[in-house]
Specification:
Distance between the termini: 11 Å
Helix content: under 10%
Low-confidence stretches: none
Structural class: mainly beta
Order of helices and strands: EEEEEEEEEE
Number of helices: 0
Radius of gyration: 15 Å
Strand order of the largest sheet: 5-9-6-7-8
Number of strands: 10
Shape: elongated
């Protein structure tokens, strides 16, 4: 953990660089933490989300390439290899029979999530 900014923690990671996460209800007392995020909370975009400079909610953005696409009935799971070499998984609901906006193998994408999507675990 690098610093606190209100109810947010700035965390430096080996795999994803610096991310901003929401501090748990019980304040973190240890400087070494892990950050977890469920695949359904990880969003993908071709250009990244539009950020609002006046918003107090940071959007964490990572870039990478889609390395695997798995169709699982109502869900599609994407594996994205980040520029750092780490792999992130994203799961999205299949809302139409043919999704022309679906992501494909080798496609460059922006992986993004909000601080509230993260769970902080003390070591």
């Amino acid at each position: 953990m690098e610093s606190r900014e209100g109810h947010r923690l700035v965390v430096s990671t080996r795999e994803a660089g610096t991310v901003v996460v929401t501090e748990p209800r019980d304040p973190v007392s240890n400087a070494v933490v892990s950050v977890a995020i469920r695949p359904e909370k990880v969003k993908l975009s071709r250009r990244g989300p539009v950020s609002d400079a006046t918003s107090t909610h940071s959007i964490n953005r990572l870039e990478g390439v889609v390395t695997d696409v798995s169709y699982l009935g109502g869900l599609t799971t994407y594996k994205v290899k980040l520029d750092s070499g780490a792999v992130v998984r994203s799961s999205m609901a299949n809302t139409t029979r043919v999704d022309i906006d679906a992501y494909s193998m080798s496609q460059r994408v922006v992986v993004w999530f909000t601080p509230d999507d993260c769970v902080v675990l003390e070591q």
